[in-house]
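Posting this for the archive.
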Amino acid sequence: MSQTVLLTLGRLPKALEMARALAAAGCRVIVAEPFKRHLTGASRAVARSVVVHSPVDDHERYLADLLRIIDEEGVQLVVPVSEEILFAAALRERVPEGVRVFSMPLATLRVLHDKHSFVGVCAAAGVAAPQTRALDAPDAQALADAGPTVVKPVASCSGRGVQFLERGARLPRVDEPCIVQEFCRGQVLSTFSVARQGRVLLTVTYRGAVMQGTVAVCFERIDTPPEVAEWVERFVGHCEFDGFVSFDLVQQVDGRVRGIECNPRATSGIHFVAPEGLAAAILHPEQLPTLRYRGERLLQQFYPCLTETQKSMFTERFARNLHFLRRARDVTWSLRDPWPWLSMPLTSWTIIEQALRRGCTFGEVAMLDMAWTGGPAGDAGKRVAAIQTADVK
């Protein structure tokens, strides 16, 4: 039986990935998006796009917009796409009977997204993470004096606000809650997993081939090291996670794995999952679908990758970036559905223009109106309580 599915964002390639997979499975796909023009809206997989308020500007109006769409379009399933999940998950308590939201509870998501409370959950789950302190903690400077560190906001995304410090550097003054974290040397890996009630059905492990700041715009899938698989499975099992969950990890020379941060949502790793299984994992919560990888191991977001390659033209990175630009398949291109790729300069102009004007990366600008950066529902008291009880479900 076909379903009407609402995606709560349309500007990112992973939204297009979901829309195509769901449409191929027989679903009617609706997209809610603050931008009038966006990448996924150009796809033949989308029946309708609806302009909504930005959740950053007005969370309640955003939720009201989504509830109106659910009512008017007869939506049966709501699928958050990216950072907006930290707002849209509040719909779990508000949707009419019979409507499902593909998300863990909001409180769980915010505990895992918070880079400080995430470290506490790692400890409770028995998996390793770097030494971490609140930036304003009395012993934060001692951690910075002991070795290289990283300072970042507890609720940042797309590399926003990340600072790398040499050993002994004075900690910066920052106007939002931040952590200072031990810098771990090793191979930086990202994972994307599909989980069902604490059981990992599939994990994609990938690494950046071309970087835009700290975010990969060309990425290569590798075979998941056993140590990484064990780390992910223990964390997911502890949280009884259900849905999409992603991690940034460091695997050190001796094989040990440490978790840097959690993205309790889909990331670019979703592009490596074959669409039939991806749709089944979203549509059928009662089943354990068979999931498999796509054939490609090297994928890119073409325009950001092209931009980074051009910027590196007179540096030692140029030959490597050009190599990947020429070899990698673009995640948006489809011969059966060409318009998202062909019209991308137009549909992405809002992001391009703001990135040029602000001097930011495309990834940072794309989330300015959608990313949760802290608030009452994620207050420190709730986070501490969740860690102390080791209960984030």
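The longest strand covers residues 199-212. The radius of gyration is 20 Å.
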